[in-house]
Structures
1.
Amino acid sequence: MKKFHKSIFSMWGMLAGFLAANSLFFTYGPVYMRSIGIDNGIIGLLTGLPLLLTLFIQPVFGLVADRASTKNKVFILTLLVMITTMVIFPLNHSIWWVAILTIAFTCLQASANPLMDSICFESANLYGYTYGTIRLAGCCTMISMLIGGPLMDVSNVSIFYVYAVFAGLCLFCALKAPKVKGHQHGGQKTSLLPLLKNKKLMMMVVPSLLIYVSVGFYNSFFGIHFTGMGASNSLLAIATLFSIIIETPVLLLGDKLYKKFGGPYWFIIVAALCAVVKGLILGRCTSIPFILVSLIFLSGTNILTYLPMSTYFNENAPLELKASSLMLFAVAMNVGKMLGSVGGGFLNNLLPLGDLFILTGCISLCAALWVSVPMILERRRNRREPEKLEANL
């Protein structure tokens, strides 16, 4: 059995705490908002529109992290503000209070996630393990889901305090994690222009956006749709748990498959197919047990996109813009989520949620078509190279 450097334990704790905490809010937050009288259209706006602000905030966070003495300091400060936001969230049911705190939290979370990934990637390269190995700790979100559902049945504010516990674990481990310096600190400052001129990165922005339309819609409305079918919050917890199970094999094999397939292309195609089939089932099936079982096999859209695309953006960026490159991917991802959430909330006034699950699933097919073009071109290039060599000989 491979021995890992001791630093991996702090990385596991940091990532497990962060993902477990945020899964609670993004799964049960819309359910909480519905329970205090906020309608689906407003919920879609509150969960989606803040992501528009991240278009401007995330690039700033990326540059700040790349220029800081350590990226850890920026992450820890962001995490402290996030914890404070969640602790005071249930103190008032006013729509303005909920809106302001949701916007603040979503913007901070969207920037903290790629920042944490940047720390994970550089630590993995330094100490000889892979990002997928660290990301395995995200399976601990199963624990938060199992706790969150039953607690929501007892008290709809309990998730905010459970959030603080998991985020506290993340904070403690982040303080112990390896320090990752900003590569522009004390040296020449670099703008974001090299990233925007990078054709490899910019080409993959579009499929990232398209895939995350369906993910954003699912995150915002699955809980409402599922409980609206008669399922309890405890069953919603089990549904979320089942949707995480597929992450384990992807994380265990993801690095090897990425190298074997030569990039993220096949991952995106499979992720899109999962989104289409899952959309069809949620749109037309009324059997709660069947939906639960199907989620085990069809909920890989997020991880099948996130893992290879994070790797792709990180490895194709210059050293001094590693954090910024992950912010660029996060911007594309969050624009897609925003379109799914806000567009879904608006269209729900015209179409039932079931039809919208089918529609957003079909949008993911466009991402599969997009990545198939560079994949075919790359294969043709690989075939021509041996032919050229033979001709020269």
Note: The two ends are 46 Å apart (CA to CA).
2.
Amino acid sequence: MNGARRRTPIAAALAWLLAFGAAAHAQSIRDANVAAGRIRSDLPAGVGVGDHWLEIAYGQAGAEGCLWDSAASFSACPGRAGWPDRPDGTPVWAGVQQRSVACGGSPTRVGDSWIGCLAYDQNPYVALGNPGDAYWVLVANDEPSFDQCNEGPPGSSHRVAGASAQPRTMFKLDVLSNATAPGRRLRFAIDLGDKDFFCARTNRYEYSIPFLSAHRMRAATTVRSVT
């Protein structure tokens, strides 16, 4: 195994969204009203680029090691290599989060996955408000997120910036003051006019489903696994 790789398992899109929805009504959240406003990408800067591969842990309850059985989940078991096809003849990785073998990249095997699913062109990391070790986790996915048509790895598919930032980006996030209540608020926007649907790797336009979300603060040492 590559010594430069950090142990940074990643969560699935659905799990992130459910976590955010639950946090919106939680009474024990440590940054109620977004008073501190510390926000950062889930993956640390540099992870998922070059030989600083993602490490995906397949140790959950599903048959293939994801959260659910591949055949029973719309997300399937993304990134999973070396597993027999499903009864219908489709690969266990084929779902909304992955559409191409090896995520459209290098088919060189690394453990239970491929380099194409573990290393991307860049990691468009973003941090606001000096996050430290407790922060709102920002998730910027463009499904399929396990795909080399994206600049970055799952959770950081594309750059996130303010609405007025240049160059413009599809994913927009601003922390705004809240004149009518304590604390601040987060303003999210997805502008498809700022997305290029052409994928240079496939040399054609590709359909995708972008989303941007944040969920409750956590310690930076929390370990996650893929669905």
Note: The two ends are 22 Å apart (CA to CA).
3.
Amino acid sequence: MNKLVGATLKIGKLVAVIIIEKLTLLLKVIGVRASFYILTIVALYYYYHQKSLDVLLPIIIGIFISDLIKSLYENFLMVKEDKLKTTHSMSYLLDIYQNNYKKELVLNESGIEFLYNESFVNQKDFKIIIEDAPSKMFDPDPLIKSSYSEIMKAHKGSYIKNFETVRLDGYTLNETARTLTLSTSRSNFYNHLLTNRAIDYEFEPGLSVRKIFEYGPRLNNFETTKMSNHIGINGIVQLSDGFTILPRRGTNATYSKNKMTASIASPLISSHDKNGTVELTYEGLKNEVKSLLNSRLYIDAETINDSSVEVIFLGFGREVYEGGKPQFYFLVKLNSLSSQDYLQILKDKKKEMKHNKSIDKDSNLYICDLLSLKLKKNYSGSVECINYYTDKIKFKSVEFSFLANVWHLKEAGHLEHFKVDQVANENIINLEMQKKQGEQLKKSV
């Protein structure tokens, strides 16, 4: 009997938490003005009763419905925006690129197909050399520049700002000398929004950047492409007890809205000092990855010893969906930071996370068991996480560069090391679920 009562209470709490969460989401969609309208109606009824309600209530309801329709339409455009500017249609892209670039990632006995053009799968004995030209700036094609305003309309549902980025101009692989030489220069984020990130947006009927410049059957070489092609940094973090950190992108991101991504997913931003643009080196590249632990995951440098952070370069390749944009993939091992330590960081940094206005901001950061990741053919799936009110997070889609990051992890033999103690994991999940439910219920009172 006690077990039945306990189970009933647990289910009741869970249902209450879900209802509160959905109502909160609805309020965010409708906006703050909805609260004002509701409070106004209640106040009018309380103070003036039927007489005022007969006159004002229809007006208030009309304004409320108008705002609701507008807000829902704006949210619909945000959801639709990603598909308009960058297609994810496998059949369409396979037709363009004649079945090139198809990859399969097998997770939990399930094979997931995606498109990816690997350029280099790192081997430990390779030396990485960067030949940087910091004063060289990418200049978009005149046709793209002439359609600047029209193409930028593709991002009207996204938070955007401009900054200087590092562009990959080309690379040379020398198997005999065991060296990889990367040639880099500079571009800016707006150039990226005009090219890679809006590659399928039709700025004129039947015309898009892909149809004009990247029409297949293969991607253009780095040396001849008209794309901005700044380097994207993707890194999967491994905490000391085997957990990883998986963000969910926010609704105003320029790409992958509401999708699960790699722990770190960011453009490589050009560094500057008092003398101007800093020349990029391989050590500088790895230091930039470390700096993203703070800017993307809120892990202060003081929290972890530099010697306890391992940045392992897994390789790089080209994002077919964005017209060949280069993505550099890393494994970042935090040997002195556990899942419990990071839970505390998330609690301590709540205010900072709320007010962060970085580009492509994440809406949530989850601490997860990477080996529990399950994906369906349509890229929806689930993963077990310890800081969610249920033991599994279900999501509608993942960012494709995240799949490529996991693919590189697996190719390098690192994926199998993401093992967590299952008994300890269940205890942590149960404890965090209870805390989360308690916090949600307190907010509702």
Note: The CA atoms of residues 202 and 208 lie 5 Å apart.
4.
Amino acid sequence: MENTPETNNTSSTSPGKRLRASAARPQLPEQDALAPDQVHVWVRVVDVLPVLDKTDTGPCGQSPCSAEVLVEKVLAYGAAFTANLAQGQQVRVHFPMTLEAVAGRPAIKVGDRLDALLSQTAAPEGTNYRMHGFALLP
């Protein structure tokens, strides 16, 4: 069998010199995959909207579930995300599990900064985006 880069995991740099494939490429840090319909952003809560959905028998029928947020930074777009968010843009976001403290998560209040995953949607109360996950930023 002939000794080729395909058979011995090396690549040729010049006649007589070989470089191992693993040495040719630096290791990239692991990154979580972003769902195709999501955007990864940093936002700041500017207003908690007190609108309650009285027809909802779940958490949004008892506590506010929407907020106005200011986009501080767009970190990544999913491949199928069609909206165009920009730094400084203010949008309405629906939080399916309310803005109240739930299951060990602190309540979300005006001024809080969030590292968030959003999707574009026609959610309740005319909101434009749905919160899929977040962490509080300092």
Note: The chain is about 5% helix and 40% strand.
